[in-house]
Design brief:
The protein is α/β, with parallel strands linked by helices. It has one domain (8-197, 225-257): 3-Layer(aba) Sandwich (Rossmann fold), CATH 3.40.50. Helix content is 42%, strand content 14%. The chain has 8 helices and 7 strands, in the order E-H-E-H-E-H-E-H-E-H-E-H-H-H-E. It has helices at 17-28, 40-50, 64-78, 107-133, 156-178, 199-202, 205-215, 227-238, and strands at 8-11, 32-37, 54-58, 83-86, 137-143, 182-190, 249-252. Strands 3-2-1-4-5-6-7 form a 7-stranded parallel sheet, sandwiched between helices. Strand 2 (32-37), helix 2 and strand 3 form a beta-alpha-beta unit. Helix 4 (107-133) runs parallel beside helix 5 (156-178). The longest helix is centred in the middle third of the chain and has 27 residues, at 107-133. The protein starts with 7 loop residues before the first strand and ends in a 19-residue tail after the last strand. Bound molecules: NADPH dihydro-nicotinamide-adenine-dinucleotide phosphate (NDP). Residues 12-13, 15-19, 37-39, 42, 59-62, 87-90, 116, 120, 143, 145, 190-193, 195-197 line the site of NADPH dihydro-nicotinamide-adenine-dinucleotide phosphate.
């Protein structure tokens, strides 16, 4: 029996990268998947690739009315929601090279990162709980980051938003338990997963090779992870193999957080 046989799942930001890999893995394991993304064409292409077990809807996770429309469509078409993966996220660097450190980040940029990464997850959890309540059970998986567990000086809003996702996942898990619902909520903390998100930072040719080596220099496994490796963990959390895994956080980072590699380099260190 496939591990997600008959489950109804919504994945955000699933037009590419980790979200696309999760949607693919869900369908391969027998789920019906609603592929959502702010990019309408990317969501539609992904759903078409996945065949009759997938459909697509536009969803900007910052927009509550769009969340309502997605949940209405799921309940109308399938009668219930079993799994939500809050995957959509941005770093802040998509729109240029503005500084995102604690001293120089613009308030507007800080808010924009939190709007997608944190408000989007809040809205997703809120509307998923309401939809899953009809069945009394479900699984919510929030894609946080290694950056939600350590400070990232050059990407402070990203780190702050991902830390908040980690904590909110625990509030959701406890709230659902208080309500007597079998709705589990967990956070996943990837690091250095090779997706289009990295492209602006990698460059091309020989420089690309050097940049890639530098980015994984503090990874014990000395390589990027693959989106499929994250998807495998998400399948586990979404499946009935994980019915007692709740309110927890799971790192998927090649061992990075096993050591102290997040410590910043010092300039003019004397000892
Ligand atoms: P990608 O940038 O490759 O894909 C993200 C997708 O989300 C894109 O299709 C993007 O659309 C979409 N998106 C952006 N904003 C919104 C929005 N407001 N509403 C709905 N969809 C939106 O990212 P990854 O696959 O690499 O990352 C997926 C998640 O994993 C993110 O939360 C990220 O923070 C997290 N993560 C990734 C790591 C990595 O190394 N890749 C490491 C740690 C965490 P568009 O292209 O049109 O902007």
């Amino acid at each position: 029996m496939p591990r997600m046989h008959g489950k109804i799942a919504v994945v955000t930001g699933a037009g590419r990268g980790i979200g696309a890999a999760i949607a693919r893995a869900f369908v391969a394991e027998g789920a019906e998947v609603l592929v959502t993304d702010i990019n309408t064409a990317a969501a539609a292409d992904m759903a078409a690739e996945l065949g009759e077990s997938a459909s697509a809807m536009t969803l900007d996770v910052r927009d509550e009315s769009q969340w309502q429309a997605v949940m209405d469509a799921v309940l109308q078409d399938y009668g219930r929601l079993d799994v939500l993966v809050n995957n959509a996220g941005i770093t802040g660097f998509e729109s240029g090279n503005a500084r995102h450190d604690p001293e120089h980040a613009a308030l507007e940029d800080w808010r924009a990162v939190h709007a997608t990464n944190l408000d989007g997850v809040f809205l997703g959890c809120k509307h998923a709980i309401a939809a899953m309540r009809q069945n009394g059970a479900g699984a919510i998986i929030n894609i946080s980051s290694r950056s939600g567990l350590v400070g990232i000086p050059a990407a402070a809003a990203y780190a702050s938003s991902k830390a908040a996702v980690r904590n909110h996942s625990k509030s959701v898990a406890l709230y659902c338990a208080e309500q007597g619902l079998q709705i589990r909520c967990n956070s996943v903390h990837p690091a250095a997963i090779l997706t289009p998100m990295w492209e602006p930072m990698l460059g091309t040719g020989e420089q690309r090779k050097q940049n890639m080596e530098a980015f994984v220099a503090d990874c014990p496994m000395r390589r990027f992870g693959q989106p499929e490796e994250v998807a495998a963990l998400v399948v586990l959390l979404a499946s009935d193999e994980a019915t007692y895994i709740n309110g927890t956080e799971l790192n998927i980072d090649g061992g990075m957080l096993a050591g102290s590699a997040a410590s910043p380099a010092r300039t003019n260190a004397t000892g």
